[in-house]
Amino acid sequence: MIRKVLLATFCLFGSVAFTQEKAEDIVAKIRQTYEKLESLKGDFEQQYTWSLAGETQTLNGTLYLKKGDRYRVETPNQMIITDGKTVWTYALDKKQVLVDRLEKSKENPLPRDLMLKYTRDFKPRLLRSEKIGAVDCYVITLTPRDENAFVQSVTAWIDKTTWLALRIEQTDLNDNKTVYLFKNAQRNVPLADGLFSLKIPADAEVVDMR
User: Fold this and answer.
1) Least packed by Cβ within 10 Å: which of 17, 99, 140, 159?
2) Beta strands in the chain (DSSP E)
3) Cβ contact 207:88 at 8 Å
4) Is the pLDDT reported for residue 105 higher than 90?
């Protein structure tokens, strides 16, 4: 009986150790994929649920990323564009452009920045394999190494072939939940440098915050 208990315990801890090792391997491949990206283009949906009010806001758009901290985010009412130094936030409905410097320390809700931060500052655990549509994914959960971190938990669905995140769910200290969905991702496609600067319309109000 004792031998059976010991064997079961050994198998349990062996399985946990294997799962943890697998999670670390997955995280290493995710980091490598995002660090090596020359460019990325894709569509996204962001769902934000405010816990206190029980309300969910949904935002859809297209994003373009290019090495050198350059990105462009387009939504129906707004564009956020940076060339790696200057950030232009153009509110189309208000015809207003905010101009500011890009701060390296500022978190940007983009897949590369999110995954690089989470794989660095959070501890991973492999939950299961699961399909999103026809795509096989690893589902991993990440918990912050700092228990006082604002984001308290993250779950990510990682494409087993491309190692890109197709879905990211995060919950903060206030139990608010943000879900990012990514589709139609194209890696390392040619993106013109002109995409990452804004030619300010003549009729737009400009607020320079630099």
Assistant:
1) 17
2) 39-50, 55-66, 70-75, 78-82, 86-91, 96-101, 122-132, 135-144, 151-159, 165-172, 177-187, 205-208
3) no
4) no
CA 118 to chain centroid, in Å, comes to 9
Question: Residue 188 has what DSSP assignment?
Answer: S
pLDDT digits (tens, 9 = 90+) for 58-70: 999 999 999 888 9
Please work out, in degrees rounded to the nearest 5, the angle formed at the alpha carbon of residue 33 by the alpha carbons of 64 and 83.
30
Alpha helices in 95-173 (DSSP H): 111-121
Amino acid sitting at position 112? R
Domain holding 17, by residue range, is: 2-208
Quote the CA–CA distance of 139 and 182 in Å, as a whole number. 15
Higher pLDDT pick, 103 / 75: 75
Measured on CA atoms in the order 190, 84, 149, 116, is the torsion positive or negative? positive
Q: Which backbone phi and psi does 172 adopt, to 5 degrees? A: -100, -175
Instruction: Enter the tokens of residue 190.
Output: 């040619």
- Residue 189 corresponds to which tokens in the numbers above? 């496609």
CB 78 within 8 A of CB 198: no
Q: Are 58 and 72 in contact (CB under 8 A)?
A: no
Q: At 144, which CATH number? A: 2.50.20.10
Total structural domains within the chain? 1
Provide mean pLDDT across the span 88-115: 77
166 CB neighbour count, 10 Å cutoff: 20
